[in-house]
Amino acid sequence: MNEPIRDWRGKRVWIVGASTGIGAALAEDLAARGAHLALSARRVERLQAFVDRLPGSVAIPLDVAEHQTLMPALLQLLDLWGGIDVVIFNAGTYAPMRAWDLTVEGARTTFEINLMGVINGVAAVLPQFLQQGEGAIVIVGSVAGYRGLPKALAYGASKAAVINFAESLYMDLAPRGVSVFLVNPGFVETPLTAKNKFRMPALISAAEASRQILQGMARGRFEIHFPRRFTLMLKAMRFLPEWIYLRAVRRATGT
What we know:
Blueprint: E1 12-16, H1 21-32, E2 36-40, H2 44-51, E3 58-59, H3 70-81, E4 86-89, H4 104-114, H5 116-132, E5 135-140, H6 153-173, E6 178-185, H7 206-218, E7 223-226, H8 228-237, H9 242-253
Parallel strand pairs: 1-2, 1-4, 2-3, 4-5, 5-6, 6-7
Helix pairs in contact: 1-7, 4-6
């Protein structure tokens, strides 16, 4: 459904949310494959320490929730590279939240980073891609966006919105030569999932997640989801009647 990307040599890649987890693993893999990298994250010291390990990459600190930081970052990249080939929006946040934990501030923070962060970034880069007539946007969602889950009151809703946004974006941009890849991981070992106090089924490493993403992009897939033994089960559960789904999830999670 997208133009496959198999050869990364010389590709100009901007990873937003690159200092830890999946973003960091992707940066290491793409650096090894010969890509030119611009890496962004909020924590300046951690970002710079990571960039120092990847010769030839450049650090561009920013906060995706602050939309005014995106355009200066893009202009800096265009001055450096003259164009851009791939943008990966991986920045996100997660805090376990049940109904009795709900606060407006907590939910707003989740949506500002997970959803508005993606929208802010896409709004900044899209005119450049349309002018070029090519490019690829990679959006990291989550299988938590498929259907409601316990402890994901704001997180799951934000990722459901991200999935919907990516689908609509693909339909508009495919005829214009711009690829849209949606990445929906299951449980991946990252600083965010370390907050979970329950056993995470089919847990994989960030390195394995990176491998799956690059493999999916090499095949031109729109949605890249993994690990498939887990995600295919969740996909099937989307077709269950609500009363069966809600009872099954409550029983399985003890909620």
